[in-house]
Automatic annotation (TrEMBL):
GO terms for molecular function: ATP binding; ATP hydrolysis activity. Signal peptide: none annotated. PROSITE patterns: ABC_TRANSPORTER_1 (PS00211), ABC_TRANSPORTER_2 (PS50893). The lineage of its organism: Bacteria, Bacillati, Actinomycetota, Actinomycetes, Mycobacteriales. SUPFAM superfamilies: P-loop containing nucleoside triphosphate hydrolases. This is Iron complex transport system ATP-binding protein. Pfam families: ABC_tran. Residues 10-245 form the ABC transporter domain. Keywords: ATP-binding, Nucleotide-binding, Translocase, Transport. It comes from Gordonia humi. PANTHER family: HEMIN IMPORT ATP-BINDING PROTEIN HMUV.
Length: 267
């Protein structure tokens, strides 16, 4: 995809990043049109989280990086946080914080200088809590939630931030199948309603293909395929990159990836 295909929300050119002093992302070129959903896929350790962190300004990156006109490493933190929200894979939850208080933290970049929430801030939080089905949990301690409940709360905090670019790191890894669909549909609805741009690291290749108009496949820190889901997800490529045995089912809503058992080891 090129910059000529509509206004770009995210532009990376020759992006590189290191973790713990070791290079883990190399020469990443990525242009994401505003209002689109790009699913980032790739094996464990291929650099998906690091790329999301670079886009959120949370790790040092070399090369050119622009997110809706914001430079993630050099712009003011408040400006970045009004533009980009990251739903992390492993959220840190302060002990004793209620679900509602955690969601309210999403409003921080929008608060006035005195830090007092306005009626609008409270309305945004109320709406997000309802949309993510969290009313019954609102006054529970966030640290005492199940993994899936907490994942919905952390998404709620990111949505309360009202970002223009939403970065999701394995957003449904702890969710049951019903909540997976509910959460991905909700994010996709917001994308349509508000021209939200979504970049989501996902291990479930079928969901990644159903929701992403485009798949970006990372392997050992480099983009090795970038295109429509049916172009990226091929049996040979998944064998080569993941060492996986799969069948690809062609469906009207995109390719579905069916893992295959190895044959022969059991009678
Ligand atoms: N804080 C860190 N310090 C040192 N190395 C790190 C750190 N975080 C990540 N790495 C390394 O950077 C590489 C890329 O990790 P990253 O988390 O970006 O991969 P990923 O594709 O998101 O993996 P997964 O699918 O397992 O979540 C890995 O080799 C990982 O061990």
């Amino acid at each position: 995809m090129t910059e000529s295909e509509g206004p770009a929300a995210v532009v990376c050119r020759g992006l590189g990043a290191s973790r713990g002093g070791i290079p883990v992302l190399y020469d990443v070129d990525l242009v994401v049109p505003a209002g689109s959903w790009v699913s980032l896929v790739g094996p464990n350790g291929s650099g998906k989280t690091t790329l999301l962190y670079a886009l959120a300004g949370l790790v040092e990156a070399s090369g050119r990086l622009d997110v809706m006109g914001v430079r993630p490493r050099s712009s003011r933190r408040r400006e970045i946080a009004r533009t980009v929200a990251l739903m992390p894979q492993r959220p840190v939850v302060p002990e004793g914080t209620t679900v509602r208080a955690l969601v309210e933290l999403g409003r921080t970049p929008h608060l006035s200088r005195f830090g007092t929430p306005t009626a609008r801030d409270r309305t945004v939080v109320d709406e997000v809590i309802v949309r993510l089905d969290l009313e019954d949990l609102a006054y529970r301690a966030a640290s005492a939630l199940s993994g899936g409940e907490l994942q919905r709360v952390v998404l709620a905090r990111a949505l309360a931030q009202e970002p223009r670019v939403l970065l999701l790191d394995e957003p449904t890894s702890a969710l049951d199948i019903g909540h997976q669909q509910q959460v991905l549909d909700l994010v996709d609805d917001l994308r349509g309603d508000r021209e939200l741009t979504v970049i989501a690291a996902m291990h479930d290749l079928t969901s990644a293909a159903q929701y992403g108009q485009r798949l970006v496949l990372l392997d050992r820190g480099r983009i090795v395929a970038d295109g429509a889901p049916a172009e990226v997800l091929t049996v040979d490529r998944l064998r080569e990159v993941y060492g996986a045995r799969v069948e690809i089912l062609e469906r009207s809503d995109g390719p579905a990836v069916l893992p295959l058992r190895s044959t022969g080891e059991k009678a």
